[in-house]
Amino acid sequence: GTLGESVDVMEQAQAGLLQFVDQSPGFTGSLIPEAQVFLMPYVIPEQQSEINYFFKNSKVIHEHFPKLYADKGLELLSMFPEGR
């Protein structure tokens, strides 16, 4: 893209050059390996209502992950499913 590849975008966000980015856990995995858990088959529920509940109420996402992102100079605003 215009701003570079995914790695470039993450570096720009860490440096404060970008205020907002939308990145896949696959691309944040080099900085935050724990994010790659969402790429594992069978971890995310199958039913849409369960998926919505999981991403809205997950303690891991809302209590554990913000610190992991903050430790890398990033602020986690939200996580959402990317499809199958």
Automatic annotation (TrEMBL):
The keyword Transferase does not apply. The lineage of its organism: Bacteria, Pseudomonadati, Pseudomonadota, Gammaproteobacteria, Aeromonadales. This is C4-dicarboxylate ABC transporter. GO terms for biological process: transmembrane transport. Transmembrane segments: none annotated. The keyword Signal applies. InterPro entries: DctP_fam, TRAP_DctP_sf. Keywords: Signal. Pfam families: DctP (PF03480).
